[in-house]
Write a structure and sequence with these properties.
Blueprint: H1 2-22, H2 28-31, H3 50-69, H4 77-100
Helix pairs in contact: 3-4
């Protein structure tokens, strides 16, 4: 019992130390971009590409569904129904993305 109480006190102490370190304010210069020792001339834009993110997310989801479908589908009747449900889901999702224009790389988000 004493070990448990000491362990909980230690965990609580470490949690307080970590949270206090996490919420300490950082200096402006440590969080700003460095441009040869000078202040940046313009605000740096985000290099995050939303179309690339959407395409990669769709690839990840469809890749997982293909892995699910890659096992032999005729093991049992339940798995056979599940197999065709996944195929239908992939087909409907692809048609929805195609008709809504998500697959068009040129369109802006």
């Amino acid at each position: 019992m004493l070990f448990f109480v000491l362990f909980m006190v230690l965990v609580f102490f470490l949690l307080v130390v970590l949270l206090s370190y996490f919420f300490m304010g950082s200096e402006f210069y440590k969080s700003s971009p460095f441009e040869c020792g000078f202040q940046p001339f313009m605000v740096s834009g985000s290099s995050f590409s939303m179309p690339f993110f959407v395409i990669s997310l769709m690839f990840l989801l469809f890749d997982v569904e293909i892995i699910i479908m890659s096992f032999p589908p005729f093991v049992s009747e339940y798995f056979f129904i599940y197999y065709w449900f996944v195929i239908l889901l992939v087909l409907l999702a692809t048609c929805y993305e195609w008709l809504s224009g998500i697959l068009s790389w040129v369109s802006s988000f």
